[in-house]
Amino acid sequence: MGTINYPDRxxxxxxxxxxITSAVAVFATTMMITRLNAVHGLLYLILSLLAVGVLFFLLxxxxxxxxxxxxxxxxxxxxxxxxxxxxxxxxxxxxxERAWLEPGIWVGPSLxxxxxxxxxxxxxxxxxxxxxxxxxxxxxVGIVLYGPYLLAVELASILLLAGLxxxxxxxxxxxxxxxxxxxx
Length: 184
What we know:
This protein is an all-alpha fold. Helices cover 78% and strands 0% of the residues. Helix 1 (9-34) runs antiparallel to helix 2 (38-58), helix 1 (9-34) packs antiparallel against helix 5 (107-125) and helix 2 runs parallel beside helix 5. The mean pLDDT is 78.
C-alpha cells in the first residue's frame, strides 16, 4: 500500500486562509449586488476588493495586492462615496443618512472586515510570505503589460477615458441646474 503524503502545516494554513478569504469575497460581492441602498452596496464592494487584495497577497502577487487596496478599495471607492454624497441633497437625504448610521447596518461589513484583519495578522505573524506562488515584482508586471498585452492596455485606457468624458457630459447639465438653483 502507498503512503499518503500530507501537506505541511504552512501549506495547509495558506489553503485555509485562501478558502476563508475567497468565501468572504464571494459573500461580500453577493451582498453588494443584492443591496438596494447604494452606500451599503459600496461598503460590501470595498470589503470584496479588500478580500481580493488578500487573495493576491496569498498567491504571492504582493504588488497586485497593494494596487488593489490603494487604487480600488481606496481611491475609487472614496470617489464613489463622494459622488453619492454629492448627488443626495435635501432634508429627505439627511433623514435617510441618519437611518444608514444605525448600528445594526454595520454588523455585516464589520464582521467581514474583522475576518480579513485576523487573516492578515496570521499571515504577518507566520512570516509574512505565502509559499503558494512566487513573488511578482512591479518590473515583471510592467514588462508583461507593455509587452504582449500592450494593445489590451491601450484599449482599456481609451475605454476608461471615454467613460470619464461620458460621465462628465451626463453630469454637466445636472450640476449646472443645481448651481443655477442655488444662485436664485
